[in-house]
Design brief:
The complex is a heterodimer of chains A (about 260) and B (about 625).
Chain A (H helix, E strand, L loop, with lengths): L1 H20 L2 H20 L4 H44 L10 E7 L6 E3 L4 E9 L5 E8 L3 E9 L2 E9 L9 E2 L3 H6 L11 E6 L6 E3 L2 E3 L1 H27 L2 H6 L6
Antiparallel strand pairs in A: 1-4, 1-8, 2-5, 3-4, 5-6, 7-8, 9-10
Helix pairs in contact in A: 1-3, 2-3
Chain B lengths: L13 H33 L11 E7 L4 H9 L4 H9 L1 E6 L6 H10 L3 H4 L5 E3 L5 E3 L2 E10 L2 E10 L6 H7 L4 E4 L13 E3 L15 E4 L10 E4 L1 E3 L2 E7 L5 E7 L2 E4 L2 E4 L9 E4 L4 E4 L1 E3 L5 E3 L3 E2 L9 E2 L3 H9 L11 H5 L5 H25 L3 E7 L1 H8 L3 H20 L6 E5 L5 E7 L1 H7 L5 E2 L2 E2 L6 E2 L5 E4 L12 H15 L3 E2 L2 E2 L1 E6 H4 L11 E5 L2 E4 L1 H4 L8 E3 L6 E2 L9 E5 L7 E2 L3 H8 L19
Parallel strand pairs in B: 1-22, 1-23, 2-37, 7-8, 7-22, 9-10, 24-33
Antiparallel strand pairs in B: 2-36, 3-4, 5-6, 8-21, 9-19, 11-12, 12-13, 13-14, 14-15, 16-17, 17-20, 18-19, 23-36, 24-34, 24-35, 25-26, 27-28, 28-32, 29-30, 31-32
Classes of the chains: A alpha+beta (about 260), B alpha+beta (about 625).
């Protein structure tokens, strides 16, 4: 739902900036011309020369459309980036299921020995395993029931805490907790790490997948579907606008209107 | 892409909007690629015939309907038509013999097919029905059944009535691309491997050849060509209905100088037409322009078939008209787009009518230059009807000069776009002369005992001859007409008798009818029996009374022409030849039927055996 809302906000924001900064009449004319050149390619399918001419015109018109989109895109870049980054940070992963193993890791500034303090519902399966540099240590954990659990990482008298979310989809969650400015900005749902020797704590949550019935949907398919939805919405919006604005608009967009 | 796997659904957002142009290019490139890859296969399937020694890569035909040779020559001498003069000096200028009768549908059908009317079957705007009714000669709508998912369904299909094979069909068999833009007698559009935009013959959305609508409170005494829609005063506004096809209607309201249509207000002006406005009837969308008139009245053009969403095809392929509309703006699709009827009824002033003609001219010019640009090799033929329409309604020297100067500019712009090896033809199908006296041929037949009346209606059982249409006279032949009385064996004798009496018919000192042609003498071919039995060649200044042409019978044979329709071309063919210009030297004594074989020879294609004309090309390959 939040992703949809983010998408809606992005679309709305884009629409407002696009309408405010671009000549809609020119955009309509260009769109009509683009569609016409596309049609022309089909009309001249038996005659390569005019067909390639039409293709050239289509590329030219597309370039003009891109130029028209440049200013609103530039203006929209920052807010879009923020929304996308936040959404990615908080919703790109899903919580682990009860009895599903998850890798929990911590990075320290210098090689030290760490231990975990776990709530009773969470069990340690393996760990700690230290990598060759001695800076990164891994555990494999498993929770018996759903909930949000605080896992404490203890070492050299200091303690850092990280929330482990189990089976409470579709909540937002934080796979990584650190001390950098990015963590401060993006991981606001958890308290950032204090200035201890633990630099970063990470929970390897599984990637969130979209499902269509029992089948996982590839992101490429989602992109295509959303594109189709976009085209449908455009048609619907246009129809509504035309109904609201009367009959004048099509004439304007084809450049036939003089008054 | 930035948002990764699970965020791909952040859309419909700006990312996708940004990808729109890229998507367009992708689809365009893919379509072109598929077309290019399958082109050899399609080429094999079509197997165009082989051309030999073509003389030109590209031929451009600029048809200027009704351009009068005497005016052209006079204005050229005065130096007012520099482009036409330059074209004549570069190649050829001559008069172009027209058809009998010199009417646009007949003449352009001969131009298209290279045969006489007896072989293409178009003898007038209208044709004789067995029940004495006028029927359109160019097309008819037939009831057919089509297979649908739910079984068979009744449907109305237009049928093209012009017979013979057009030169563009022959060109397409040889793989030559043709753009045929608004050449008359092309509706419903022919199927061939080229592009065609229909013209004369194409109906309006009501299925007529162009019915304008006059909205007002008080009904005028006589509207010959249009319909009246009453407006009721409600408070400060006038309200009424706009009837559409299949008994549908839209509400209209006139408030001050604003037209309220479908809930939106449009400013109306007495001097400027509105832009094309969409009329969304429940089953079909039309286009119309409006003009405010005096006394709380307003005028609406015939409802055009919408080029973007045509209720019936107005182009071949069907996507051609929408493409042109998207590229060059909405346009009039009705065959007779310039509203002669509204001017003739006095609803439009001459100024308003001229404005309408030039607006349509500008539309067509944009379409023509686009098609010319796309015709790198092949044929681009376009007909501008403006000269015909304007000259019907004015004999004013300044207005005629303005018209001819505009046509000259069009020729100039076209010449600038030509390549060195291109061939240009500028031609008109007939000339124009003033029309001062109207002849009611039915009245003459009545007065001379060939036509009988029963009250105000024709008594067909006692009628031996009658007139329908602009140039023909038919016998009430037994076995052909529903209540025919003339025995077939008496037909020739009666025709000769009528010819003798009508040829040289005088009006005071002047000869009103120059010649009367018997059908056998002027037509050959399988469709000759559909022609009128006699074709009349009127003297300059004399023309058929429109009411008589519709089958009514008046009291006076000759009447002074007091209508705004002040000039015509339906005279004896030799009186109103057209013009032919070309940038190539051509043989003399050209006729309309010569154009088809000439074009074929230019493209290296032999003339068809049925062609009656000769090639005008002087060069040898």
């Amino acid at each position: 739902m939040t992703v949809l809302l983010a998408g809606f906000l992005l679309a709305l924001g884009w629409l407002l900036i696009w309408r405010a900064t671009t000549s809609q009449e020119k955009a309509g004319t260009l769109r009509n011309q683009a569609v016409a050149h596309l049609l022309e390619i089909g009309l001249y399918k038996d005659y390569p020369r005019p067909m390639l001419q039409s293709l050239g015109c289509l590329i030219n018109i597309s370039g003009q459309i891109m130029r028209l989109l440049f200013l609103p895109s530039l203006l929209f870049l920052l807010p879009a980036l923020v929304i996308v980054l936040y959404t990615r940070a908080l919703y790109a992963h899903r919580p682990v299921e009860p009895f599903e193993s998850v890798v929990f890791s911590a990075i320290t500034e210098r090689p030290i020995s760490l231990s975990l303090r776990l709530p009773s519902e969470v069990h340690k399966e393996v760990g700690p395993i230290t990598d060759s540099s001695g800076l990164r240590q891994f555990w494999r954990l498993r929770a018996a029931q759903a909930g949000s659990y605080v896992v404490a990482v203890h070492g050299q008298g200091e303690t850092a805490e990280k929330i482990l979310v189990v089976g409470s989809d579709p909540k937002s969650l934080n796979p990584r907790l650190g001390r950098s400015w990015k963590d401060w900005l993006l991981r606001f749902i958890e308290k950032p790490l204090p200035g201890s020797s633990v630099k970063e704590i990470k929970v390897n949550y599984p990637r969130r997948k979209q499902w269509l019935g029992p089948y996982p949907v590839h992101w490429g398919v989602e992109l295509l579907l959303s594109f189709i939805l976009w085209l449908m919405l455009l048609g619907l919006v246009e129809r509504q606008l035309r109904r609201r604005q009367g009959l004048h608009r099509r004439s304007e967009s084809t450049g036939a209107v003089t008054s | 892409m930035l948002c990764g796997i699970s965020l791909a659904y952040i859309g419909p957002g700006p990312g996708l909007v940004l990808q729109g142009p890229a998507f367009l290019i992708l689809v365009g490139c893919l379509t072109a690629l598929v077309a290019l890859l399958t082109w050899p296969l399609r080429w094999l399937l079509r197997r165009p015939k082989k051309r030999r020694n073509p003389l030109a890569e590209r031929v451009v035909i600029l048809g200027l309907d009704g351009l009068e040779p005497t005016l052209v020559e006079r204005f050229m001498k005065q130096g007012r038509l520099p482009n036409l003069k330059a074209l004549a000096e570069e190649g050829t200028y001559q008069t172009l013999a027209t058809t009998t009768p010199p009417l646009s549908p007949v003449a352009w059908a001969t131009f298209s097919t290279g045969v006489n009317p007896g072989k293409h079957g178009i003898f007038d705007f209208v044709t004789r029905g067995p029940d004495y009714t006028n029927r359109l000669s160019m097309s008819k709508v037939e009831n057919t059944t089509v297979r649908t998912l739910r079984g068979r369904a009744a449907r109305q299909e237009p049928r093209f009535l012009r017979k013979g094979k057009s030169f563009w069909s022959i060109l397409s068999e040889y793989g030559v691309l043709s753009h045929i833009v608004r050449v008359p007698v092309t509706w419903p559009p022919e199927k061939f491997a080229g592009l065609q935009l229909s013209a004369m013959g194409a109906p309006d959305l009501l299925g007529t050849q162009g019915t304008y609508t006059l909205f007002g409170e008080i009904k005028p005494s006589c509207l010959l060509h249009g319909r009246f829609q009453p407006l009721e005063r409600v408070g400060e506004s006038l309200r009424g209905h706009l009837p559409g096809p299949n008994e549908s209607k839209l509400e209209v309201q006139l408030k001050g100088q604003s037209l309220i249509l479908n809930g939106r207000a449009y400013p109306l002006s007495k001097t400027e037409f509105t832009p094309w406005l969409e009329l969304p009837f429940p089953k079909a969308v039309g286009l119309a322009k409006f003009l405010l008139l005096e006394g709380g009245r307003f005028y609406m053009t015939p409802i055009q078939i919408h080029p973007l969403r045509p209720a019936t095809p107005v182009s071949h392929p069907p996507g051609f008209a929408p493409t042109l509309a998207r590229l060059k703006g909405h346009f009039a699709t009705c065959g007779l787009a310039e509203d002669l009827g509204a001017r003739d009824d006095g609803v439009l002033t001459r100024e308003a009518f001229l404005k309408q003609c030039y607006e349509i001219h500008a539309e067509r010019k944009r379409q023509f230059f686009h098609c010319l640009h796309r015709t790198g090799k092949g044929l681009c033929a376009v007909v501008f009807d403006g000269p015909d329409r304007v000259q019907h309604m004015t004999t004013d020297e300044d207005e005629l000069l303005e018209l001819y100067v505009q046509m000259d500019q069009l020729v100039g712009e076209t010449r600038q776009k030509l390549q060195p090896n291109d061939v240009l033809f500028v031609l008109s199908d007939h000339g124009f002369k003033p029309l001062h006296t109207l002849i009611d041929l039915n009245a003459w037949l009545y007065q001379n005992g060939y036509l009988a009346l029963c009250g105000e209606r024709i008594d067909w059982e006692k009628t031996r001859a009658y007139t329908l249409g602009l140039a023909g006279l038919s016998l009430n032949l037994k076995g052909r007409e529903a209540q025919g009385v003339v025995e077939p064996e008496d037909a020739s004798r009666l025709c000769r008798e009528l010819k003798e009496k009508l040829e040289g018919l005088r009006h005071g000192e002047e000869v009103a009818i120059l010649k009367v042609h018997e059908t056998e003498a002027v037509y050959t071919g399988p469709y000759r029996d559909q022609a009128p039995d006699l074709v009349l060649g009127y003297s300059q200044g004399y023309g058929v009374d429109k009411e008589a042409a519709r089958g009514s019978v008046g009291t006076e044979v000759f009447q002074p022409n007091t209508r705004p329709w002040v000039a015509d071309h339906c005279f004896e063919a030799s009186e109103v030849p057209g013009v032919l210009f070309s940038n190539r030297a051509l043989r003399k004594q050209a006729s309309l039927a010569d154009l088809a074989p000439t074009l074929l020879e230019l493209f290296g294609i032999p003339a068809a055996p049925f062609h009656e004309g000769r090639s005008l090309v002087m060069e040898t390959p």
